[in-house]
Amino acid sequence: MREHSYNNNMNLVTQIPLSPTRPTGPARKPKAPKHAAAAQPSATAESPSKEGEGYAATQGPAALAPAQLAEQPGEADARDGAPPRKRAFNRREVRYLKSAHAWGVRAFGAAMAVGCVTGLLIFAHPATSQLEGRQLTAFPEFTVDGFLDGSYLEQVALWYSDTFPFRDTLVNLGQDLKGLYGVQPDTSLVGGKVQADELPPLEPQAPPDEPAPDEPKPEDEGPVEVPTEDAMAADVQKNIMSGLYVKDGAAYSIYYFSQEAVTNYTTAISKAADALEGTADVYSIIVPNNSAAILDESVLDSLGGTNQDQAIRYFNSLYSPNVRTVPILDALRQHRTEYTYFRTDHHWTALGAYIAYEEFCKAKGLQPVDLDALKTMTFDGFLGTFYTELKNAAMADNPDTVTAYVPEGTNAMTYWNKDGDEVEAKVITDVTGWNKNSLYNTFIAGDQPISIIENPAITDGSSVLVVKDSFGNAFVPFLVNNYQTVHVIDYRYTDTNIVEYVKEHQIKDVVFMNNISLAGTLTVAAKIDSMVG
Amino acid sequence: MVFSSLIFLFVFFALNLAVYFTVPKRFRNQVLLVFSLVFYAWGGPKYLLLLVGETLISWWCGLFISRHEERSKKRLGIVIECVALLGLLAYFKYTRFFMGNIAAIFDAPELIPEIFLPIGISFYTFQLISYVCDVYWDKVQAQPTFWKLLLYSSLFYQCIAGPIVRYSTVADDIDHRKVTSLDVYAGMRRFCIGLAKKAVLANSCASVADTLLPMGTEGLFLQNTAGCWLGMLFFMLQIYLDFSAYSDMAIGMGRMVGFRFLENFNYPYQCTSIQDFWRRWHISLSSFFRDYVYIPLGGSRCSKLKYVRNMTVVWFLTGLWHGASWNYIFWGLFFLVFLLLEKFVIGGFIKKHRGVGHVYALIVVFFGWVLFKFENFTELGWVLSCMFGQAGTGLGGLEVQTLLLQNLFLLIFCIVACTEAGKKLHLRMGRMAQSSPSFLRVYGITEALTPVLCLLVSVVALAGASYNPFIYFQF
């Protein structure tokens, strides 16, 4: 009896109870007939189908793993497709298999127990993810309504899985698992399903003294709500990562033009410049994405998206005449074979920022500092945002190097963090040993709401304010060589009124520096607009 | 709470197993009932009333039918059951649909009420109706104890996503189930395989399909021809792997404690005709419609006209059951057309030419899934025209090529997973184990490790699914 059940077809579901010492209960019918029915669920309808087996063979030799996953040990079909059995399992074999199954059950039980206990260690549930740079789902507040309609418990389940202990390790393993799903092509396109607005033709004859006459339409619809940090974050993330061209371990982001966002952005900056007319000179620098600065024209055209050269010209055509524009794309393209942008991160390198700085100096009539004269710091092994998003193996094999140039005169700065606390920091921080995805933070202590750098080597009273996103971080250190005081505002983290700030500190030059994808985001435009009124 | 979530796995199911196997045997049903009610209440405790209420009605109707001899009284019992349960199902599932249609025709009513669909109502309603019908037809004895019937209807293994278990299948198991060590092992393995099938294969296919066919967004209308085909192929794999994985897990968990549910899928993509497909796909549903609608209407032993009527009713209802939207109804009727075609025209031919039948059936099923996927007819029409190169978005592109290459092994793996190749390999390995002690050892080790490896890979995949890098804070 015992051998029989194992032998019959090796199919563990159609079994007769294993142990002969456990006879079938008297009140219970033997199970076997039921399983015969299970094997041919269609038997009651019409003749049972036997057509299936011809196709299994055409699937070719099955790998071990898919076979195990695909297994449906539910049907007794030994009589159908399988070759005839040789002989029964003997007593020794059955004993061996029984013990193997017992070990299998123990291993399962142990894994479940470990998982259960680990998950119940509330204190081990992380609140943030270093890996992803985000706050994890918080444990929900209890409300009676939320409990009754199920949303409370659903949130608890979400919290549990999002903050499972050791999640970053598990997530990393999960990403490795995904790597096994296929081959990583040298050239690829991720995302790209974004519809860009049509870029309007440039009209150079547009009257320059009428800054955007019919543009501030959004304002007619009442005050635009100031976006929250999270809303802006989500929007920006979507924009930067919406289309990525990946080639040879480097990613290039594609730009998609949005008419409304660009109009709002340029209107806001024009507003600031008009308000500061006679007080300060306002400059706008739109930083292109790396695709426009580096890729071949032919490749660029094949990727879809909007031509950034034309888009930046369009940006610049919309400004009030009080805004002085500094085009940098041509200069960057002249150096396109050099290391102006990172491969694994969407930012530019200090070299890319230096080229923009040279163009700014040209426009301003300043003498740019000689790059070779500056002391450098170098940090290897940088795997930035593109890598975090894509987990591309070619990137991991060839990480970026961050080079930073310490300004002449000083390396000290002061910033006020989100809580308003004053913090002493360095213009160029030694980030050796930092997390490999955070090395861009070497520049001006990362993104801080408001920072001030005083250069004691310059005493001409000159001052500049840079209103920037993170692209400005690599740019600011060079300005320290030319100005006595450099003020930096990261508009995403503060609500300070920019016009009042400039007047209060008697700043003479204001530089708005934004990446094209960010400047083309509705939330960013709305935020800047709220700070220049 | 879904089976493929960490909280189900490591809190709910782990505690369930621990408690179930520690309490004295006589309390095991109570343990299962309490866990099942908690499981159901997780998705919204107020709907627990509905589940308990429907079971109460069915329990009473069952007893009412069994206690009366007169035919008219028996009939009254079944009428009450059907009116009450189908009425509730119609209210919760179809009110909005019907009112939406009425509103579209008559411009009234203007306000269509928000009604949330209680989890699993489609499944347990059918289970309870089948129970009362079986009592009516004397196929089973009425269950005198209310909470035992509640255990049948609420059992968390199958309550919210099937299979639609017949009462006759488990009637005996409720009071007299026995579990052998082989049951525990085999059930556990089935559960783990199902979990991996869902967490690794189905979820990954879903992610590719959703990337290629982002429903409800403008992105969908930018997809090209190759993208639409590939997206639908991944959807076809996803829907089978996902659904059958749920059945695997339900059957496996039941088996671990001694319930023996019937199979719900039998490698449907190996079908050689549409009729064959429906004998292999969601068997518990098609057999429900067969036994409780088609055969009572007269089945096929009647005039041709009546047969067509019966089939139309069954396939209309099958479509409607899947969702309150016209596309599901068309999906049901789409299959009706091919079933009638097979019955009256091409049946003989495809029986002779199995290869042709197989290809034909897969193509029909494939386009069936296109109908099934898009509730929005603008999207549906657009995707169909795009598949035949009529949308003007081009034949292919780098993005589609990238996704194909990045998921090539997954695709092959999933296709193999839809066939019985795995089962055959398992049988062959068992046979080889008899040939030498070393093969036996390998076989034993595989048997011992397969479930736990599937479990671990699933946990990794489930944790990985929450990967959501937020680059903004690293700017």
Any chance you could write out the topology, listing elements then pairs?
The complex is a heterodimer of chains A (533) and B (475).
Chain A: H1 2-7, H2 32-39, H3 53-56, H4 64-70, H5 91-120, E1 128-129, E2 134-135, H6 144-148, H7 151-162, H8 167-179, E3 187-191, H9 217-220, H10 229-241, E4 243-247, E5 250-253, H11 259-275, E6 281-287, H12 290-294, H13 297-302, H14 308-318, E7 323-325, H15 329-334, H16 350-364, E8 375-382, H17 385-390, H18 393-397, E9 400-406, E10 412-416, E11 422-426, E12 450-454, E13 463-468, H19 471-479, E14 485-490, H20 498-504, E15 509-515, H21 516-519, H22 522-531
Parallel strand pairs in A: 6-7, 6-15, 13-14, 13-15
Antiparallel strand pairs in A: 1-2, 3-4, 4-5, 8-9, 10-11, 10-12, 12-14
Chain B: H1 6-22, H2 28-42, H3 48-67, H4 71-106, H5 121-136, H6 146-154, H7 167-176, H8 181-212, H9 225-257, H10 274-280, H11 283-297, H12 304-322, H13 326-352, H14 354-373, H15 377-387, H16 398-406, H17 408-417, H18 421-433, H19 437-465
Helix pairs in contact in B: 1-2, 2-6, 3-4, 3-5, 3-6, 4-5, 8-9, 8-17, 8-19, 9-14, 9-15, 11-12, 12-13, 13-14, 18-19
InterPro entries (chain A): DHHW (IPR025945)
Organism (chain A): Parvibacter caecicola
Pfam family, one (chain A): DHHW
How would you describe this structure to a colleague?
Chain B: It comes from Parvibacter caecicola. Chain B: One of its GO terms (cellular component) is plasma membrane. Chain B: This is Alginate O-acetyltransferase complex protein AlgI. Chain B: It is found in: Cell membrane. The complex is a heterodimer of chains A (533) and B (475). By secondary structure, chain A is an alpha/beta fold. Chain A has a domain at 190-531. Chain A has helices at residues 2-7, 32-39, 53-56, 64-70, 91-120, 144-148, 151-162, 167-179, 217-220, 229-241, 259-275, 290-294, 297-302, 308-318, 329-334, 350-364, 385-390, 393-397, 471-479, 498-504, 516-519, 522-531; strands at 128-129, 134-135, 187-191, 243-247, 250-253, 281-287, 323-325, 375-382, 400-406, 412-416, 422-426, 450-454, 463-468, 485-490, 509-515. Chain A has an 8-stranded mixed beta sheet. A 3-stranded antiparallel beta sheet of chain A has the order 3-4-5. The longest helix of chain A is centred in the first third of the chain and has 30 residues, at 91-120. The model of chain A is unreliable at 1-5, 7-84 and 205-223 (pLDDT under 50). Chain B is mainly alpha-helical. In chain B, 73% of the residues lie in helices and 0% in strands. In chain B, helix 12 (304-322) crosses helix 13 (326-352). Chain B contains 19 helices and no strands. Chain B has helices at residues 6-22, 28-42, 48-67, 71-106, 121-136, 146-154, 167-176, 181-212, 225-257, 274-280, 283-297, 304-322, 326-352, 354-373, 377-387, 398-406, 408-417, 421-433, 437-465. Classes of the chains: A alpha/beta (533), B mainly alpha (475). At the A-B interface, helix 2, helix 3, helix 4, helix 5 and helix 7 of A face helix 1, helix 7, helix 8, helix 9 and helix 10 of B.
